[in-house]
């Protein structure tokens, strides 16, 4: 794809149709995915054919400034069928935004390759200045590299004093997959289909134009060579808040599947140990239905509100948030992340013994929802402490 190629915007209806097709295909292979610890190639190919990776690129590179409501609904639609596939879908979209913040030559090379991208924000790498006086030598091992099995560009986090900086700052150093070692260590309770293996490198050279200055972007920086698209969606929102917005959407989408299944089973369930009574006529089951639906609705509304705020920031061009609002968004993500697995676990126990069979799918959704909630960007305790501190005028969490 040429850097000047502009695509016609795809309708919301078509995008959600593609999302459903990805989710249904992934669900078809769910048992195999758990065994293989990765999504099958058929699902990845379907994901590539969807062109979801283009959606939040700049328009000059095929993007379309996709609205945040549709962005969230794409993720929820896939998650309703496969949480692992929703994780991959979410990352495919957001990982194609950070090249917008690097110099044009590197940006062109990455976008025009039309190869997928992966990253690990965790600043665990060691960086040295290269002898040429320009680039950097990057070493380390990063776990949780989601998408590494089907991506060719990998961005890896580290703190380092850049040549044009005055103190260590968080940046992502972009390398090619063929230049790194992929460590097959992804054997987890949930999200098994994401294939989020570790990557390792030893003094790999990274040219300065292939450094994503994340710390500077958090502070409001855009493209280092000028705003080639001043109205670019991701130049006009708080970037980290955007980047982390999809986790709640995954949780809501996966949880909705469990809630819907619980409603259906309650309507059709016969309690053989309770005089063959109809479960739908049981007052305790009716109460549970009411509670579960209200609890789910609460999480859905929080996830909706989060995306509505993102849309508002984009319309007003807000790149940096006031401290309390930044931490409130963290708290919203943390609230969903805490309560989604609690609801999911309760549903599993109330569904009864048949829900424990792997082919039923319920236990897999529960495992996956728990795994999503373990991500450090929405840990409940950190989120609430950070939000509470800002309410009394103190600084919140330094990153999220």
TrEMBL record:
SUPFAM superfamilies assigned to the protein according to its UniProt record, in alphabetical order: Acyl-CoA dehydrogenase C-terminal domain-like (SSF47203), Acyl-CoA dehydrogenase NM domain-like (SSF56645)
Domain Acyl-CoA dehydrogenase C-terminal positions: 247-376
Acyl-CoA dehydrogenase/oxidase N-terminal domain span: 27-87
Gene Ontology molecular function: acyl-CoA dehydrogenase activity; flavin adenine dinucleotide binding; monooxygenase activity
Keywords in alphabetical order: Monooxygenase, Oxidoreductase
Signal peptide (residue range): none
Gene3D superfamilies xrefs: Acyl-CoA dehydrogenase/oxidase, N-terminal domain, Butyryl-CoA Dehydrogenase, subunit A, domain 2, Butyryl-CoA Dehydrogenase, subunit A, domain 3
Pfam families for the chain: Acyl-CoA_dh_2, Acyl-CoA_dh_N
Protein's UniProt keywords contain Cell cycle: no
Record's keyword annotation contains Oxidoreductase: yes
Name recorded for this polypeptide: 3-hydroxy-9,10-secoandrosta-1,3,5(10)-triene-9,17-dione monooxygenase
